[in-house]
Fold these 4 entries.
Entry 1:
Amino acid sequence: MQLSTIHVKVSGVTDNIRHIRRAKDYTQAYMAQHLDISQTTYSNIESGSVALTLDRFLAIAQILDVDTKELLAVPMPENNFPAVDQSFED
């Protein structure tokens, strides 16, 4: 199996890509042009309709000028842990 055929299947990755792309004010057409694919194909990548290959994932990170860890990051919900009673009695 070639490295380029491994698919990135991490929940939220395409949401992170979309969020960062929009924050940088990049259009889908801009991303597609730099990836040498159609805008429709790029849109399908962001929507999850088309598998995101590792090669494309790495290229997207490079275009967005972010570390791949940033694209893989899963936001931590607030109050993720139960409250801890910090009152100790001796």
Entry 2:
Amino acid sequence: MNLYGVLIAPPVCTIPGNSIIYVDLGDKILNSRINGLNYLTDFSIPLSCTGSPAGVNMSINGTEASFGNKVLKASKDGLGVRFIRNGASQPINSWFAVDYRQSVALQVAPVREAGSVISGGYFNATATVTLQLP
């Protein structure tokens, strides 16, 4: 008896260059206009995959803002960043399906806790993008 077969390497997906993706929300954000829709900023996450992986998922992971709503906590109290995908909120720390053949188009907008007044000045927020293959 002679048994044989061909093993194929599993598909691999990466973000080219494993680089940091910077998204500039601007420098003229008015506290009174922060509502999760104003100051909407487009960006994309490029993907590079070997093979033809089916069922690729992505998650944007980070610390959730204390006021909830699955938005990313920013460096100023009462301030967060909302992610939007295909016109709907994309909660952080949640998996969503992506097409490995194209960049993942997203939008972000600052959001604030109801009733909060946020002090002026620089802010930032940090998240980690994770890919999941079947």
Entry 3:
Amino acid sequence: MPDASDQEYIEYVTARLPALRRLAYGLCGDRDQADDLVQETATRLYLRWARIAEVEQLDAYVRTVLVRHFLDTRRRGDDGRVLGGKLESDDQVRPVRWTCR
């Protein structure tokens, strides 16, 4: 059974999930990448929950975490996706980096 702190985290994230997904999708325009952004944000939030649960403007803090993570992936030019295609021979297959708009 989760302790009180974990329960607060679960309730907070569950209530904010739709808004976080909308924000993430608005940033990148891709549902899968938006879900990845939200998942990473939720993970980062959980790891810091004991310190930030009492922040006055927690929603703004969480949105900032999500936006900064999105910008970090854009700056690196890496959103974690590698696409490849099959040509006439397997030797000709080259990975292609896919980035959000």
Entry 4:
Amino acid sequence: MRQSHRWLGIVLTLTIAANFVAMALGPPPVIIDYAQLPPLSLLILSGLYMFFQPRPGNFRHRSGHSGSIRVSGSFCCGNGTK
């Protein structure tokens, strides 16, 4: 699923580039104007599908865990100096 999502992104990018090239040469045909809609629609649907899929191993059980995060150093510079 992720691989097809990536390829849809490439196809969408190519259709947008083709639209810009066609616009530079004059008024583009209607088919070029609307060529982005099918890959965009499929990209949105596949992205939503992947977003709502649970990913096992990503969620941790909180039993025995305080939930606090330890951070060393400074938030500013990352090397402990301010």
